[in-house]
Write a structure and sequence with these properties.
- This protein has about 300 residues and is an all-alpha fold.
- It has two domains: about 1-55; about 80-300, Orthogonal Bundle (MetI-like fold).
- Helices cover about 75% and strands about 0% of the residues.
- It is flat and about 75 Å long.
């Protein structure tokens, strides 16, 4: 309507203006349709491994080796899930992983937030220098620290416990400290100044003002740390000896190594069934926290 009004004002041909509007609408629809198709195609490519894993978990073993491969199982066998969960005590592994993951997540969130608050909201001499020293620790590969940490934890008697996996999370992580610091710097300093004038301590400002305003960043740190713990294989492999303390990652590896001897007729379907069950909690958790997760990622690093 606006274009037609302009056409009448400047004595343009209304039909030509309408044709131009139709072409513009058509181009907009084509662009939107093209973007939608590309998004669906990329999403399907991303989901293909998961679809194949789930389809394989419902097959019988001879069908896994069929050439050409079949996407959908000709014989759906739901028993693969119950049998895979029986060959290995995955219920116990889930409980162990939750203990490890939740404890490490709480430690990472609290320690990183406290350190980030000190680097972003409190003025003290040498603050920026110490911050860059903390960031420089990110350049030290984990393989370099592996043997010294193992010797230290062995000397203090922490082997075959979850302490070597959990306690380091309570000492801060350079990456999480950097993320939280960048987020805290986006919060107006006037809020902290007003609280100080009212007599609030630094810890009071931290717990009553900063943390409630940083929920999205805290969720991002918590999700990252929990997913690291859920998928962690190297840490439990180094420090855990008792099979009753294994995590889900160790359980999957144990099933991969010894599952063929236990169930040679359904080895790959059982392995894919166990992998599907292990993947489901992470996917569900992401869908429930997707909005907060994306918001935290978008806001982190806005201010340097």
């Amino acid at each position: 309507m606006a274009e037609l009004t302009v056409a009448r004002r400047y004595r343009l041909d209304p039909e030509a203006v309408r044709a131009r509007l139709r072409r513009r609408r058509t181009l907009d629809l084509v662009r939107k349709g093209g973007r939608t198709l590309i998004t669906f195609a990329l999403g399907f490519l991303f989901l293909m491994p998961f679809i194949w894993m789930f389809a394989t978990s419902l097959k019988i073993d001879p069908e896994v080796y069929r050439v050409p491969p079949t996407w959908l199982p000709r014989v759906v066998r739901w028993e693969n899930y119950s049998e895979a969960m029986t060959y290995e005590p995955f219920g116990l592994y889930f409980v162990n992983t939750l203990k490890y993951g939740l404890s490490a997540t709480v430690g990472a969130v609290l320690s990183s937030a406290l350190c980030a608050y000190g680097f972003s909201r409190v003025q003290w001499k040498g603050r920026d220098t110490v911050f860059w020293v903390v960031l420089s620790t990110m350049m030290i590969p984990g393989q370099v620290r592996m043997i010294p940490l193992f010797l230290i934890f062995k000397r203090i008697g922490w082997l075959d416990t979850y302490l070597p996996l959990v306690i380091p999370s309570y000492l801060g992580s350079a990456y999480f400290i950097f993320m939280m610091r960048q987020f805290f710097m986006t919060i107006p300093t006037e809020l902290s100044d007003a609280a100080r004038i009212d007599g609030c301590s630094e810890l009071g400002i931290f717990f009553r003002i900063i943390l409630p305003l940083s929920r999205s960043a805290l969720v991002v740190v918590g999700l990252f740390r929990f997913m690291d713990a859920w998928n962690d294989y190297m840490g439990p492999l180094i420090y855990l000896r008792d099979i009753d303390k294994y995590t889900v990652a160790m359980g999957l590896q144990h099933l991969r190594q010894y599952g063929q001897a236990a169930s040679p007729e359904q080895y790959w379907p059982h392995l894919m069934a166990a992998a599907s069950v292990v993947t489901v909690p992470i996917v569900i958790m992401y869908f429930f926290t997707q909005r907060t997760f994306v918001e935290g990622i978008a806001l982190t690093g806005v201010k340097g």
